[in-house]
Amino acid sequence: MRHDIVGYPRLLLIHPHPRYRLGALLAECDPLAEPTTEDQRWLDNGPVGNEFL
User: Could you tell me the pTM of the whole model?
Assistant: First the structure.
């Protein structure tokens, strides 16, 4: 959550986090796009903690 303090007397403005919908996020993605180098490195690394695979 982001906030700003403005004016006198002091006024606190609170900006809530935007609400994302899975469908809207997926609509912005290209399903045929190749993974980036960083993504591929992450996929190739394997588990690093107590992940259950």
Answer: 0.41
